[in-house]
């Protein structure tokens, strides 16, 4: 190829490139213009939409502002109307008070005028009385002078004789009057005292149910009796050993009798039987577990009973230990009378009597509820229950009047408070009601407790239960510390001590139980 041809080819290529560049620039410029136009149109549309939205928002805000303005205006007008009404009411009251004040002022003016007239009248009457007195004195002096001439006595001598005669007559009349007044006061005091006591008794309605030594556990059918007895009687023996009561399973339909002098033990046995029958699993291990849980629940129930009692009686600020001892009263008796019921009744009687006499009813009620608190002290003490109760009340910061009333209600200390005789009287009223108490029951229960305490005094004795109405003493000993030979000797020693130190009818059977247990846990 010649140079001219190459040049032509190169020139044509350059021209083609130039044309392509120009065409590309033209196309790009056209595309850019098109996109710029679209962007401007889109921006204009966005601006229109924004203006429209802004207009809507503006309208909404205006509407909200108008509504808020109308609401505030309504509230303001309502508040203003209320205040206007109050002002009008106050103005009306002020007018009425002003009228009443004006009437009072007018009445006072009338009274002042009447008083002035009365004063003038009294002054006139006083002047008249003074004149009459002067005239009477002159007449009296003339009469005295005439009498002195007739009686040959001066006025002073006659006055002295008259005074002596009047003194003698006054002494005689005064003595007679004092004597009759004292007799009348004595009769009146006796009547008033009887009236207060009778009204107090009449206003206090109380139940008089004597507690006995048995509880009845009702069952749905007699098939449960076999489960309770267990194979060869092992279940019933385990239940009696755990609770310390006697379980009597006889031919009585749908009933099991729980016998024991201690109401707490009977209640533990009854609740344990109820849980065992509901659960259906009745065997010695389960029995011991249920009895232990029931005993814990009874302790909690004692606290709950105490708290409920003080709340119902309206007594506040008692120490928790005193509240707990009040709960224990529910399961104790005094001569066959439930101790809590007796104490509640005494508290109500004391409050009523104190009210009649114009004394402090709260202190009287407090002392009445706590007067037998010494009977439920869990530890052994040689002090009488009244003195022990007084010491407990002092220990727990009770009022001195309450402490004295507790300690003196059996005349074991001197009464220093007016509450003390009231507590004593109300205690006698509660205990002397027909059917309220039974002396033989208390002595019987005390004999059973002495029997148990005597056996517990021997070394190696863990538990001791008096059953069969005191005809049998069941003693449970520690198998680790007491051998079989020593167990036999222990029963003999207990029987000898009972024979020497106690008085009892018939004979007492001493049963010593030694049971060896080995416990291990698989973990």
TrEMBL record:
<dbReference type="InterPro" id="IPR003607">
    <property type="entry name" value="HD/PDEase_dom"/>
</dbReference>
<dbReference type="Pfam" id="PF12072">
    <property type="entry name" value="RNase_Y_N"/>
</dbReference>
<dbReference type="GO" id="GO:0003723">
    <property type="term" value="F:RNA binding"/>
</dbReference>
<comment type="similarity">
    <text>Belongs to the RNase Y family.</text>
</comment>
<dbReference type="InterPro" id="IPR004088">
    <property type="entry name" value="KH_dom_type_1"/>
</dbReference>
<keyword id="KW-0175">Coiled coil</keyword>
<feature type="domain" description="HD">
    <location>
        <begin position="339"/>
        <end position="432"/>
    </location>
</feature>
<keyword id="KW-0812">Transmembrane</keyword>
<dbReference type="InterPro" id="IPR006674">
    <property type="entry name" value="HD_domain"/>
</dbReference>
<dbReference type="InterPro" id="IPR004087">
    <property type="entry name" value="KH_dom"/>
</dbReference>
<dbReference type="GO" id="GO:0004521">
    <property type="term" value="F:RNA endonuclease activity"/>
</dbReference>
<keyword id="KW-1133">Transmembrane helix</keyword>
<keyword id="KW-0472">Membrane</keyword>
<dbReference type="InterPro" id="IPR006675">
    <property type="entry name" value="HDIG_dom"/>
</dbReference>
<dbReference type="GO" id="GO:0006402">
    <property type="term" value="P:mRNA catabolic process"/>
</dbReference>
<protein>
    <recommendedName>
        <fullName>Ribonuclease Y</fullName>
        <ecNumber>3.1.-.-</ecNumber>
    </recommendedName>
</protein>
<keyword id="KW-0255">Endonuclease</keyword>
<dbReference type="InterPro" id="IPR036612">
    <property type="entry name" value="KH_dom_type_1_sf"/>
</dbReference>
<comment type="function">
    <text>Endoribonuclease that initiates mRNA decay.</text>
</comment>
<keyword id="KW-0378">Hydrolase</keyword>
<dbReference type="GO" id="GO:0016787">
    <property type="term" value="F:hydrolase activity"/>
</dbReference>
<dbReference type="InterPro" id="IPR017705">
    <property type="entry name" value="Ribonuclease_Y"/>
</dbReference>
<keyword id="KW-0540">Nuclease</keyword>
<dbReference type="Pfam" id="PF00013">
    <property type="entry name" value="KH_1"/>
</dbReference>
<keyword id="KW-1003">Cell membrane</keyword>
<keyword id="KW-0694">RNA-binding</keyword>
<feature type="coiled-coil region">
    <location>
        <begin position="87"/>
        <end position="153"/>
    </location>
</feature>
<dbReference type="Pfam" id="PF01966">
    <property type="entry name" value="HD"/>
</dbReference>
<dbReference type="GO" id="GO:0005886">
    <property type="term" value="C:plasma membrane"/>
</dbReference>
<dbReference type="InterPro" id="IPR022711">
    <property type="entry name" value="RNase_Y_N"/>
</dbReference>
<feature type="transmembrane region" description="Helical">
    <location>
        <begin position="6"/>
        <end position="28"/>
    </location>
</feature>
């Amino acid at each position: 190829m010649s140079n001219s041809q190459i040049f032509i080819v190169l020139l044509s290529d350059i021209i083609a490139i130039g044309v392509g560049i120009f065409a590309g620039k033209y196309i790009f410029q056209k595309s850019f213009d098109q996109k710029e136009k679209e962007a401007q149109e889109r921006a204009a549309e966005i601006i229109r939409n924004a203006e429209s939205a802004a207009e809507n928002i503006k309208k909404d805000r205006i509407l909200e502002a108008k509504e808020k303005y109308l609401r505030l205006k309504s509230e303001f007008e309502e508040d203003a109307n209320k205040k206007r009404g109050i002002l009008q009411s106050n103005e009306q009251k002020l007018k009425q008070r002003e009228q009443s004040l004006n009437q009072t002022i007018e009445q006072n003016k009338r009274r002042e005028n009447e008083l002035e007239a009365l004063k003038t009248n009294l002054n006139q009457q006083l002047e008249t009385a003074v004149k009459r007195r002067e005239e009477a004195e002159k007449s009296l002096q003339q009469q005295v002078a005439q009498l002195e001439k007739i009686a040959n006595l001066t006025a002073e001598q006659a006055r002295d004789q008259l005074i002596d005669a009047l003194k003698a007559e006054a002494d005689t009349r005064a003595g007679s009057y004092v004597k009759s007044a004292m007799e009348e006061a004595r009769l009146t005091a006796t009547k008033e005292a009887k009236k207060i006591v009778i009204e107090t008794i009449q206003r206090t309605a109380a139940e008089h149910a004597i507690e006995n030594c048995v509880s009845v556990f009702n069952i749905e059918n007699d098939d449960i009796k076999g489960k309770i007895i267990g194979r060869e009687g092992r279940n019933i023996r385990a239940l009696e050993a755990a609770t310390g009561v006697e379980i009597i399973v006889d031919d009585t339909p749908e009933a099991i009798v729980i016998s024991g002098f201690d109401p707490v033990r009977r209640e533990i046995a009854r609740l344990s039987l109820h849980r065992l029958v509901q659960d259906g699993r009745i065997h010695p291990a389960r029995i011991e577990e249920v009895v232990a849980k029931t005993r814990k629940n009874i302790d909690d129930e004692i606290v709950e009973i105490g708290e409920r009692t003080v709340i119902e009686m309206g007594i506040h600020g008692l120490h928790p230990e005193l509240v707990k001892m009040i709960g224990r009263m529910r399961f104790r008796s005094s001569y066959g009378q439930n101790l809590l019921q007796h104490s509640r009744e005494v508290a109500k009687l004391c409050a009523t009597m104190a009210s009649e006499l114009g004394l402090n009813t709260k202190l009287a009620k407090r002392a009445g509820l706590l007067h037998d608190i010494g009977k439920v002290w869990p530890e052994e003490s040689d002090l009488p229950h009244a003195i022990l109760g007084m010491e407990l009340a002092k220990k727990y910061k009770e009022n001195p009047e309450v402490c004295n009333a507790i300690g003196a209600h059996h005349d074991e200390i001197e009464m220093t408070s007016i509450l003390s005789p009231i507590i004593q009287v109300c205690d006698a009223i509660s205990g002397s009601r027909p059917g309220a108490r039974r002396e033989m029951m208390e002595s019987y229960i005390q004999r059973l407790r002495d029997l148990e305490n005597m056996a517990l005094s021997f070394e190696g004795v863990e538990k001791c239960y008096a059953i069969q109405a005191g005809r049998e003493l069941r003693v449970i000993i520690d198998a680790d510390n007491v051998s079989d030979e020593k167990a036999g000797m222990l029963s003999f020693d207990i029987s000898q001590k009972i024979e020497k130190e106690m008085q009892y009818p018939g004979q007492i059977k001493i049963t010593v139980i030694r049971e060896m247990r080995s416990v291990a846990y698989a973990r």
